[in-house]
Amino acid sequence: MLNETTRVADFVDCLAAGEPIDRYMVFRVHEVMPELFDDIVRPPYCCTARWCRSRFWFGGPGQNGPLHRDLPENLYAQVVGRKRFVMLDRRLTRMVHRYSFLSGVPNYSPVDAERPDLGRHPHFRGAPLMIADLEPGDLFYIPSLWWHQARAIDTSVSVNLWWVRGSMVAVARAAELFMRLRGLRL
Description:
Elements: H1 8-16, E1 25-28, H2 29-32, H3 34-39, E2 51-59, E3 73-80, E4 83-88, E5 130-134, E6 139-142, E7 147-152, E8 156-164, H4 168-182
Antiparallel strand pairs: 1-2, 2-8, 3-6, 3-8, 4-5, 4-7
């Protein structure tokens, strides 16, 4: 994962000029713009969760994220543009060729779910993928630990809300500490 600081205006200028951009602009809403985080209306089923985080996602057409899974429950709001999600049930983890736990990113897979190399990743053959095409105004639920990959179809702006409850709060906090110790900034 590439982590570099870019001004929003510079990112927009590159998109407007049609320059290829090989990354998303992502920031932690609860850290960078806590006033925006406070404006996110939390539905009744997650408003009492003791751990909530949010990310702002901005990407150009064709920008593709890796196949991965997240511990928290996830509500994903598409604000501008269209985005395609490819999903795989968490019970089918054996199919994704995930990275080892010692890699530091065991929640990521080297498989491109839309264009899998079945020679390198034969277990992915026949994976029962689910496709969701989001448009502005769509709200999409991604269950905890489900494998998913997103690709911006157009210039795309999105905001998500992650949350966990109960004993998973301690796990989420431990994962944040692990990321901080490893210098991971997503």
